[in-house]
Amino acid sequence: MNVWLQVADTAGAVLVFLGAAISLLGVVGMLKLPDVLSRSHAATKPQTLGLLLVLAGVALRLRGGMDVATLGLIGFFQLMTGPVAAHLVARSAYRTGQIERGELLFDDLDAQLTEPEPERGPGPSPDRGTGQD
After folding, report:
1. Are 54 and 20 in contact (CB under 8 A)?
2. Which label site among 64, 75, 113, 116 has the fewest CB atoms less than 10 Å from its CB?
3. Per-residue pLDDT tens for 88-99?
4. Other C-beta atoms within 10 Å of 12: how many?
5. CB burial readout 19-58, b (16+ within 10 A) else e
6. pLDDT tens-digit profile of 13-72?
7. Residues 107, 112, 115, 119: what is their CA dihedral angle, to the nearest 10 degrees?
8. What is the DSSP string of 31-90?
9. At 107, is the secondary structure helix, strand, or coil?
């Protein structure tokens, strides 16, 4: 067996182990963290990095063109869908009142959700009718 193949196999095994360990830390974070925003952070950041490390390790072990392309697509779609799903979970938790707004450093969503009072134009007021009696 070629020395470079042994190095690639060993590096692949190390990457798979590191990816699994980082994913395990993400699961522990989901179980231990107190609120929705912290849990969604623990659900996406380490899981995405862990999956990418596992995919890189598997790619080093398989070495086939079609296999590596498939693993690349899996990584691409994980990078595209993971943050979007976490954002939607956090936003729905915010809208349903499951987040302590006093603990937030910045609350940019509050300005978007509170609708300003509509401006009154020169037309008739809706509570006074058409103005013709």
Report:
1. yes
2. 116
3. 888 888 888 877
4. 19
5. beebbeebeebbeeeeebbebbbbbbbbbbbbbbbbbbbb
6. 999 999 999 999 999 988 998 888 888 888 888 889 999 999 999 999 998 889 999 999
7. 120
8. HH--SHHHHHHHHHHHHHHHHHHHHHHHHHHH--HHHHHHHHHHHHHHHHHHHHHHHHHH
9. coil
